[in-house]
Fold:
Amino acid sequence: MAFEPRQTSLGGRPAALARVRLDRLERWLEREREQIGLWVPIALGGGIAAWFILPHAMAWLAFCCGTLAMACIGAMLPVGGRLRRMMVVGAILACMGCLLVWGKAMLWGQPPLVRATFVQMTGDVVAIRPVPAQAMVRVMLRPVDAPDLPAVIRVNIADADVPAGLGEGARLRFRVRLMPPAPPSVPGGYDFAARAYFQGIGATGKALKPVEIVIPSTASPPLRAQLFGHILEQVDGSAEGIAAALATGDQGAIPEADAEAMRRGGLAHLLSISGLHVTALIGAVIFLLMRVMALSQRAALGWPLMLIAAAGGALAGIGYTLLTGAEVPTVRSCVAALLVLGGLAMGRDAVTLRLVATGALVVLFLWPEALVGPSFQMSFAAVTALVALAEHPRFRAFAAARDEGAFRRLVRGLAVTLATGIAVELVLMPIALFHFHKAGLLGAFANLIAIPLTTFVVMPLEALALVLDVAGLGAPFWWLTQQALNLLLLLAHGVAASPMATLLAPTMGMGLFGITVVGLLWCLLWRTGWRWLGLAPVLIGVAVTFTAAPPDILITGDGRHVAVRTGKGMAILRDRAGDYVRDVLSESAGYDGELAAIADLPDARCSRDLCAVGVKDGNGRSWRLLFTRSTVLIERSDFARDCAAADIVVSDRGLPRWCHPRWMKIDRRLLARTGGLSITLAKGEVHTVHRVGDAHPWIVRPPRGSGRPKSQL
Structure:
């Protein structure tokens, strides 16, 4: 009997169990069939994100092969099942996303300058952007007869050095020290190098006087620049920058104090041209067209008024998008508005999550690199949260119009606005923590006043003032616009001054951010009870971020600036560092106070050339840190002794081989390979800006052996 065949198969029970589970999954997908299409842009975006996350071409190819293998596995599932179609289509879309952004990077990207260089250059002006808040003009140039320079260079020219005749098409000659576009200063910082690569900027610099005009410009300024300058002439004070930003999307005239107050108050979304502005413009155009056409009896009775008004609103939206520079939020809003108008013209309700998904697909196909930027993520996350909340049956029933008194209607409207604001703030919190290391807490309450004030007071007044300026009658309305904007700024500064305005956290890891976003999408896009499973990764991601140990030491990529966490806060090595460096170090450390000077610490022993300080980590262990502060030659015997006594030595120059600290020697040679560093002493964790083997095309790789810094110690 032991050698006779079994009467039942060993694989029968697992196979039957798998069929039962698959059948349950198919029934669930059948109930969610209307929502499955919403995951199409997410699958495409997953492939785009994989290209940015994975380091080199072999990893990108492996990802594409893996997705195609997943499609083949999906094709082996039972024919006709929704899971089969989702796996096949989703895997192919992910492969397409990776290839899409890879192809665009190879075909349209601009390789960066290899190393910093000082040149006397001649260039043709491609574009000009005044930045009054920083007293400079930002100019895009194409170098002339300079094959060793990138095709496009961005140069800042101080207002005092701007020559007469500067404009598009002009040819300039000046001296400049060109730098490759800057990578993040510290881990988790803003990556301008990646953005500049896709914008076609290969180098940046500041022009040194004199700036000469070789060929003056004969072209008139673009309409956007003319509108920007006209608004600055009509409005005075801090309000002028806000007024110009609301009309043109250019925030160059907003002082940093006001911009920071708007960000801390949760009102920064009002400054970028997005759904609020495009919707208000299109709605105003449709309203005016309907009213004007209704004055004619023939038109009112015989013409398709809604179709004509929708067409006029669509043209206005497209024109406004082109006028304001066609930024990602504006394009997304314009596409969404056009779809809404098309749905209304056909008599259908077009405000659905499918509308948002369609807009996301359009943006990802045209600008796949936008996926990793905060603008794309925050704009689509906010709109998705709003539409998902509006589609919820209970919220829709609560917000529906009904026959009730004016007071109850007002209270209900405020409750709806507050609920939507809170929903948006909660959804945007992980994204804000990842990119900016802080999230707003009072923005939902501030927007109760700011959004109606901007939509129904500021923007109509500004539009009316611009129209009346044609006849020279806009001055009274500009004064009213200025007063309304002053009220908006007063609100922003008042909210920003509250200690509860923002919530700070140290840098959020990319993996943690990924699972948090997936959890948010799971909650927002599904409709059955299984949607709430997405809360688990969201809560885990936020909890881990806030409970994670913040870094004890932050070192910028050039080694000049170091921030150290002490028992009383954060301290910086060079106390004359600018506001930008201080903000970057504070935000990356999750610290909201003033940075003290390391030399002023009680445990510090500093000279003009060296600074030694003792700190304690979270476990109570003492660490000795040593920093260089100058380029002066130091006696070998003294410096060797100090190196041996230190656990970590940091320098912005090359350290000699005989400098042997107990744990880490961080100098220019190391930082050239790693970029900026963040160190958590208690765990012994070291995070770097650059990853080993990173082959993304915007990573600067100097030729081997060139530019090797010589020790000055």
Notes: The CA atoms of residues 27 and 82 lie 9 Å apart.
